[in-house]
Fold this sequence. Notes:
- The protein is of the alpha+beta class.
- It folds into two domains: 1-34; 36-205, no CATH class.
- 15% of the residues lie in helices and 36% in strands.
- The protein is built from one helix and ten strands; from the N terminus they run αββββββββββ.
- β4 and β5 (117-130) form a beta hairpin.
- The radius of gyration is 24 Å and the shape is globular.
- The model is unreliable at 11-39 and 44-54 (pLDDT under 50).
Amino acid sequence: MTRENKLYWKFALKVVxxxxxxxxxxxxxxxxxxxVQVSLRLFKAEGVTDTGAAALLLGTNEGDxxxxxxxxxxxxxxxxxxxxxxxxVITFFGTNAANERFDWNLYGWRNTNGPAMLIxxxxxxxxxxxxxxxxHDGSTGTANEDLWVDSIVVSNQxxxxxxxxxxxxxxxxxxxxxxxxxxxxxxxxxxxxxxAASGGAYISWF
Length: 206
């Protein structure tokens, strides 16, 4: 083999190795960034927060971007997430007996200085499955009193895509799914405790 041939094959081998290294690095990055999930976060766990149906949309300044409620969650890329959220999953809970009800409104804000948008409203029914441990802090729920919601009813929705509900009845854990369509913030309001003693929810986003 001539000197020129040896140099050629040596260069070709380096190119192949470099390509493999780049492919592996790109592949690792692609896998890492495929899904970003934030652990369950507490939305609300309190008594009556009854401000009336769609109250955020009625006040002079209540629904504007500058007055987004302090309990709203940011869905844009931030220190906790490396990319914007594409979907939201909400899991409800409450007290203090199976089949008791509370109502909710779900709002969103899409862009800076944009208006509040009512995404949907509805109600939940508690199931019989205990909240054994609360996910956000590991505290123990009270048996037969702190319960997961097993039925979510979407009474009205005003969103670009139909919301998804995973479970109705059966004492399982129901979930409400939403395609964010570029929302920057989302806010859940427990509007009427109704027959339940309290209501609340957790959110995961992806």
